[in-house]
Amino acid sequence: MSYLALYRKWRPGTFGEVVGQPHVVGTLHNALRAGKISHAYLFCGSRGTGKTSMAKILAKALNCTSLVEGEPCNRCDSCVKINEGRFMDILEIDAASNRGIDEMRELREKINMAPAEGLYKVYIIDEVHMLTPEAFNALLKTLEEPPAHVVFVLATTEPHKIPLTILSRCQRFEFHRIGIGDIVGRLREVVNEGAIDADEEALRLIAKLAQGGLRDALSLLDQCLTTEGIRLDVNTVAAVAGVANDEWMADWVDSLIAGDAAGVLRSLHQALRDGKQSGQLLSDLIGYLRNMLVLSLGAEARELVPVSSELAERLVLQGRRMGTKRLFGAVERLSGLAGEIKYGGSEQILLETGLIRLCRMLGDIPAELPESVAPKRQAQKAELQEGPMDVPVPADNRPQTSEPDAEPEQPVQTNVPENSPEKDEPTDTVFEAGPLWDEVKERLREEKKLTTLAFVVEGHPVLDGDTLRLCFSKKYEFHKNRSEKPEIRQEIEQCVEQVCGKRLSVACGFLEEDVVAEAGKPSGDELLDTIRKVFGPEKVEIVKEE
Questions:
Q1: Same domain, 24 and 167
Q2: Which of 93, 365, 484, 487 lies at 20 to 30 Å from 453 by C-alpha?
Q3: In this structure, what are the phi and psi dihedrals at residue 462, rounded to the nearest 5 degrees?
Q4: Residue 468 is inside which H or E element, if any?
Q5: Inter-residue contact 61 to 82 (CB < 8 Å)
Q6: Same domain, 441 and 504
Q7: pTM for this one?
Q8: Which of 122, 142, 175 is the last residue of a domain?
């Protein structure tokens, strides 16, 4: 006898065996007990949630001669034939391959014929949304007033594609995604029956990868059980499914948080050599960071993260080290990278460059620069280590204090020692103005904010606490004035927050040497007044040079 796949072997035969759909089971049970049978049902939901299985159970219950409390007996002649696929009055139609008007006309011609063996003729139309508009129109009248011995069961994963005229003539049931706990319970039944030693974490990973579909979970379990050995562990499941296991992913994220770009790339290349896919690794990483974000909400969100207690504790610690703002920035950046990979060229190259940028953002690693640019960048870094420059800022941009005699806040120094406790504090993001400012300008370019980029490109960034001061030379006064516009400042602040994961206010001013030179030079009007006072106004004549 040929091998029977697990999802076929374990297909439910009664309502009581259906997993994860109590709202549908309860309603159909009550209808069958009360004898209130509708002429048309519509089962909606994602794949693998039990729509077709429920349709077959309903058809069996309608033709069972020994129905007990709404459950088919599975012993009468009708039930036995249905289970063996020999019952003539249950007709399954795949609308994906029989979607034209001719098939619906043939159905209309045969529908008035009485049942050959049972009490009802049941038409199960799977993927009904694939029918053409003409086929829907041909089905409409029959669906509205079918013969008393006919019941339609329509199944679809995309109910929004079905005409409203069809929807209004059916009783609609929504099939939910099956919970991880319910899937693990059914998988445990399967492995126990086969005397298979399976780790709980392995079954949980299978349930997680199934994304709410029990059929997908059983298919993956079937594939895992064909590997050598009689023990099913999480590493076997990860290898078969081509995903990263939780322990490897946790170590990978530790390298990301530490800004260890070389270590991140080494781990990535090893995973790729082991058969992992770049797109799947990126998806796994985004999901891991999502779990970190959810767990940062507190204990009440623990049930939303289906991981072991040991991994949950590690996720919480990693989230504290990373900080909520930088975590949001990382998720946003990786989500954008996923879009680039979807429509881009080389997945591996895009993933590698994206991870290096993420390491720079999380670990404040300076970029390597060409020799022609390096001296200028080192000078900027030296200025940062000496402390923020005393840059005059317009009065509108100065922070207001509630008391007029309050002492001004001391600026936050950027040269934090490596072993300082502030270095590990997730809320204190050190903005290394030189390298990260280049990323801010690149982000402006990527988001097509070219006008803003043209104004700020001549600015020299200096961090002063929670304020990023852009210092311009006097010859770029126009650029400074335009950068002070509220809409321009808002765009700069948004890009800065996306890059460094911290909200900074932007203020504009002039370079210190230009301010000092301008302050020491008398204006033209002041000099003219002095000359008039010394020599008398009648003896002063203003002559313009040619």
A1: yes
A2: 365
A3: -140, 130
A4: strand 467-472
A5: no
A6: yes
A7: 0.60
A8: 175
